[in-house]
Every structure is written in structure tokens, then in C-alpha cells.
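Notes, p. 3: input format for complexes.
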Amino acid sequence: MVKKADGASNFRSGTVVIVGRPNVGKSTLLNRLIGVKLSIVSRRAQTTRHRILGVHTDSRAQIAFVDTPGFQLEHASPLNRTMNRTVTSALLDVDAVMLVVEADKLTKQDEKIISMLSETVPVVAVVNKIDKLKDRTALLPFIETLRTAYPFAEFVPVSAEKGTGVEDLIDAIVNYLPVGDPVYEADTITDRPERFLAAEIVREKLFQFLGEELPYGTTVEIERFEHEGPLRRINATVIVSKAAHKAMVIGAKGSKLKVIGTRARKDMEQLFGGKVFLEVWVRVKQGWADDARSLRSLGYS
Ligand code: GDP
Ligand code: MG
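Output follows (301 residues plus magnesium ion):
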């Protein structure tokens, strides 16, 4: 438990959901807020498939941040429908919402998400990627545009990538949380098990090293996760839907898979704080992305 200052009962504790269209930097922001890489980041939209909880604790407050998959408005596949449901349910039962938008760029998709916000919960507009702005004076008119779109509680310009403004964002959010005891231990960063995080890390490397080539519907399962003293022994299987995709993931003479495995292992060692022995395999399983039943069996419901 977090030690409170003597006699003080003004510690705040609450849940904040991070919403926004794909690619605005929600996962990058969550990682910044927590201080470790918890949620996977990619240039390609739609890398976050699951709800990720990241916990920030300091001497004043504990904030449980929920990163959501971006809304997928264009394609109505079962996978996208499942993800949209995850977002909608994440908006209930929270103390505040952070809507992330890109500085100087308000798209139809942003507007659609803004129209889905409930006015019963305070919404902080996080204007991200300010490092990309050539002209900082563009920020003010942009904020004015946002102000006319929705009664935001506050506007906080940040660069999730560089870390600019992230402390200000935490200061702003704390004001909207109720006074209360922390729910998680002070050193807790997520409610997700290591097994899940391991699969996410492998997924991130697949996005990173296959880029646009990564076939839609590729997923990762952890077949084995064992502790041997301080060592973690992890076997991961990359599941693809076609034999041709398997060859792409493996690469010439196994070169792709090797770099994916090495980088994933390094990130796991950093996140788990110990040595990891990782094996990555690739297996073909036909058509799972189109099959709602197999989606459920993989835990996407
Ligand atoms: P999400 O889909 O909203 O979760 O977005 P991600 O966190 O996966 O980020 C999407 C892309 O935007 C990645 O390539 C990030 O590196 C990039 N990105 C995120 N935040 C910033 C930022 O503050 N500045 C810049 N220049 N790029 C960013
Ligand atoms: Mg994301």
C-alpha cells in the first residue's frame, strides 16, 4: 500500500480510459505514463487488440489507465466488431476520459469518436505529437476547434514520444479523481499476467519487422511459460492463416524470425526484470480472423 502523508486523507484513486482513433499515440502515451513499455506501439493502425491496464502510483494518487484498441469504423469484420465493443464498454465506469488527438489534425474519425463521448464523465483532450508541429502557434486555433466540438474539461498538449507535457497531464488528471485508497500495490504496473505481456511483445516485434507485410489476422499464443529460479522459459507460437504467410514470418534462412525472437527476448527481460529463454515457432491455422468462434477461443471476446 502507498504510505499517505501523516494524517492526510486526500489521496486520490481512480480509473481513466484512453480513447482515440488508431495511430494517434494512445499506447505510446500509456507507456510514457507508466514509465515502461506495456502496450504495443506501431506505425500501423490497429495494433492494440486488447484492453490494457497500466497503473501509475505516486505520493498523491493512483491512476489506473485503460488503453483501448482504436475504433475500426471502416470494416465490419468480427474482429473489428469485438474491438469496438471493447472500446464502448471501456467508456463506462471510469472517473475520467482522455481523448487523444493529433495536434493540428482533426479527422472524421476523431469527430465520430467525440460524438460517442458521454457528457457525464470529464473528458481531457490530449493533443499529442506536438513535436511534429512546425509552428507551435497552430496549437491555439486547433484547441479552439476542439473546444467548439465538445465541452472538454481541459486541453493538454503533449508529445508522448518525447515525454513533453506528460507530467502536466498527470497533474491535470489527478484533479478529476475521487479521494480514495489505492486499489493496487504501489509497485504494480498492470493487471495483466506476464504470459499475456509476453505474447504482446512478440506481436509488437511482428509489426515492427514485417511492417505492411504482416498479414492481417496473425496472432501469438504462449504455449509455455515457466519459471526456473530467476529464469523464465517461454515458448511462443505465431499463428498465421496461410502457408505463404508462415514463410514471410520466418524470412530467408530464418532471418526474420531470429530478429523477432531476439528483440522480443530483450524487451521481455527488461519488462520482467530477469533472464528469459525464448523460443518462437510459426504455425498455420486457417481463417481464424473471419471466424467469430475461433476468436472467442483465442480470448478476444
Ligand atoms: P495508437 O494506435 O493510438 O495506440 O498509437 P501508437 O501509440 O501505436 O502510435 C502510433 C504511431 O505514432 C507510432 O509510430 C508512434 O511511434 C507514433 N507516435 C506516438 N506518439 C507520438 C508523438 O508524440 N510524436 C510523434 N512524432 N510520433 C508519435
Ligand atoms: Mg494502441
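The two ends are 33 Å apart (CA to CA).
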